[in-house]
Design a protein that fits this description.
heterodimer; A: alpha/beta; Rossmann fold; 2 domains; 36% helix; B: mainly beta; three-stranded antiparallel β-sheet; 3 strands
């Protein structure tokens, strides 16, 4: 290889991840809100530099982190020597620095999927030419070769994989990623449970609506890419150990098979809806199923979406406030509806003072989400008495029954 | 004339409007769209569309 790769002194060094590839991204330790997704562990914006004959940068970083990325690149090579930039994903956490990088390094060519070319144009209104690459097309980097695979709607129209053939290294853009700031760059250097949770949370909040496309992609992946030695996603650690396991996890989540667990989401004004929720929760447990009680003052919407990923039932409770849903309940319903979790059973409940419209609104949204309603709404005027709480407990029991039934159906031979 | 929804991105093809950006005239049924027509939002092929509810 022609390039000298001596590591220069810098507070922001590149990290070598394979023979020819360096991580040159940025770590965002302080991010706590990623467009409405609670990132309690921050995130990383991963960019990668392939030191081939044609020096190639895969993706960039969010605009404010441009200097950090450029410093990491400069730690191994003069950034002006970058020949190609490949944009796997036009979202601004990966493309934000792209226009400035293009100005700074004047690359010979910038590549993106055909829809990426359009998306970048609509973001940055550039006059530069970005070259579209087709699904399955290969590009020679001199001594190395990459192949592009369109992954439309995983999770944007423009999304694309780039595969470095000689190293069986898959640059997977947002797929297989997670929001996790860390000093470690590889999956096997981090706690397994933490990785699993953050991977699951990412799937539940970003990829879930496109599960049918995930299944389609994973079905053809073994033929497309028989060997994957490393997955380099755009967020979180590089995967070099748990590749088969994360593909299995993705398959399971994409199938959306329900478990024996009910998620009970609610908010409350004077504790009446809270009492109802607790009675439902006890009913679910007494019926032999698992329950997760998620009051909206304590749980963020993205945690609820994560918990729902492997649940089988969704129960939503709201007081009626000024003839309407409680605002936090409207928030979570809007969010969950967009995530399109399928195959759930559920019901609506809530307390009210005089008009009681909220439970009806919940029911409408649950029906739109194709949740199978296993009960009429359970409504209580003002404060639940023993009889009302017994009705809530009974609802929990019916939920547990329905969960066991749907799990039996799943296990039954066809 | 039936409307068709893109199962990839949710775009709705409405024959009443056609797809003027891609030279599809108003009044063109989904069935009469050319085989190589694709979703103007996400690039999905005709096979990824289903009749809208």
């Amino acid at each position: 290889m022609a390039h000298e790769t001596q590591q220069n002194q810098t507070p922001f060094p590149a990290v070598r991840i394979s023979e020819h590839v360096y991580w040159v991204g940025a770590v965002d330790w302080s991010l706590r809100d990623f467009h409405g997704y609670a990132t309690e562990h921050g995130t990383t914006y991963n960019a990668y530099l392939i030191l081939a004959d044609k020096v190639t940068l895969i993706d960039t970083v969010k605009a404010p982190f441009m200097d950090e990325m450029m410093a990491r690149i400069a730690s191994i090579i003069d950034p002006a020597k970058i020949d190609y930039i490949i944009s796997n994903h036009a979202e601004m956490d990966h493309s934000g620095a792209l226009p400035a990088v293009m100005r700074a390094v004047e690359p010979e060519a910038v590549y993106a999927s055909p829809l990426g070319v359009k998306a970048l144009a609509d973001h940055f209104h550039l006059t530069d030419t970005i070259t579209p690459v087709k699904d399955g097309e290969s590009l020679s980097l001199g001594n190395l070769n990459v192949t592009f695979y369109e992954t439309r709607m995983l999770h944007w129209p423009d999304s694309m994989f780039t595969y470095l053939q000689e190293e069986a290294l898959l640059f997977s853009n947002d797929a297989f990623g997670m929001h996790l700031a860390s000093s470690e760059r590889f999956d096997d250097e981090l706690d397994v449970a933490l990785l699993h949770h953050e991977t699951e949370k990412y799937y539940a909040n970003i990829l879930l609506p496109y599960s049918h496309l995930v299944l389609r992609l994973l079905e053809k992946l073994p033929d497309l890419l028989p060997a994957i030695d490393m997955i380099a996603p755009d967020h979180g650690p590089v995967r070099r150990s748990g590749i088969a396991a994360v593909i299995e996890d993705y398959q399971r989540w994409a199938r959306q098979a329900p478990s024996n667990k009910a998620v009970i989401v609610y908010d409350t004004m004077w504790e009446s809806t809270a009492q109802m929720a607790r009675a439902i929760c006890e009913g679910v447990i007494a019926g032999g199923a698992k329950a997760m009680l998620m009051p909206l003052n304590a749980f963020h919407r993205s945690e609820i979406a994560t918990e729902l990923l492997d649940a089988g039932a969704l129960l939503v409770g709201s007081p009626t406030l000024n003839n309407n849903l409680f605002p936090s309940v409207a928030d979570i319903l809007t969010y969950l509806r967009g995530l399109k979790r399928r195959g759930l059973v559920g019901a609506a409940f809530g307390s009210y003072g005089w008009s009681g419209e909220a439970v009806g609104h919940i029911n409408e949204t649950l029906a739109a989400m194709k949740v199978e309603l296993i009960s009429d709404v359970v409504k209580v005027k003002y404060v639940p008495d023993a009889d009302a709480l017994a009705r809530c407990f009974a609802l929990g029991g019916r939920v547990a029954e329905a969960l066991q039934q749907s799990n039996l159906e799943l296990r039954a031979p066809e | 004339m039936n409307r068709y929804e893109c199962t990839l991105c949710g775009y709705l093809y409405d024959p009443q409007f056609g797809d003027p950006d891609n030279d599809i005239l108003a009044g063109t049924t989904f069935e009469d769209l050319p085989d190589d027509w694709c979703c103007p939002e996400c690039g999905a092929g005709k096979e990824d569309f289903t009749p809208a509810e």
